[in-house]
Write a structure and sequence with these properties.
mainly beta, Jelly Rolls, seven-stranded antiparallel sheet, about 60% strand
Length: about 180
């Protein structure tokens, strides 16, 4: 544990509710909301794996489009990179949206552009997918948008993002303290 008594990995991800309600959107047929899901401050750079999910948990949604975008800010040392829409999910329903519908991923497409056009993955990748991140710090937020033809529909979702280092060698293990975490590492 750290000095505050909380293990640092408790900030390595979470599942949070996300409410998209057009009834409270000022007469618009579009509703937006966002939710912070993770904030990692690791003591050293590592290679991180990730898991993203969005589950429809309720609402009065028919004839809707729900778009969920996971935005990342990550870096090493004093360098930081922001990637909006790092992972993106879409739910589209012409009838009632079935509660329990779920989308999830552990990798995302490698999106490159040349002259504003998406291109094929470079020759040095095998499948054009990203499944790990090099980082020391990571912040992740989910942004949701519900679009419909009329004001009134809503949707509740559970959005989640979890991160884990590929190698998690804890220094307290070396000194035989298996129940604690030294200096938040």
């Amino acid at each position: 544990m750290t000095a505050g008594g909380t293990e640092p990995w408790l900030m390595w991800g979470s599942e949070q509710p996300l409410l998209l309600d057009t009834a409270n959107s000022g007469g618009n047929a579009i509703a937006n909301a966002s939710q912070q899901l993770a904030q990692i401050r690791y003591k050293r750079p590592d290679t991180w794996t990730f898991f993203f999910s969005a589950i429809l948990t309720g609402g009065s949604a028919a004839n809707i489009l729900i778009d969920i975008a996971f935005d990342l800010t990550f870096g090493v040392g004093r360098s930081t990179t922001q990637i909006p829409n790092f992972c993106r999910f879409s739910f589209a329903y012409t009838g009632d949206a079935p509660v329990g519908s779920a989308l999830y991923c552990t990798d995302v497409p490698n999106q490159r552009t040349e002259n504003g056009n998406l291109t094929t993955p470079p020759a040095f990748t095998t499948d054009g997918r990203i499944s790990t991140l090099p980082a020391q710090t990571i912040q992740c937020a989910a942004r949701g948008t519900l679009t419909t033809l009329v004001s009134g529909p809503s949707a509740q979702l559970a959005v989640a993002a979890y991160f884990a280092p590929r190698t998690h060698v804890r220094p307290d293990w070396v000194v035989g303290k298996l129940g604690s975490e030294l200096d938040g590492r």
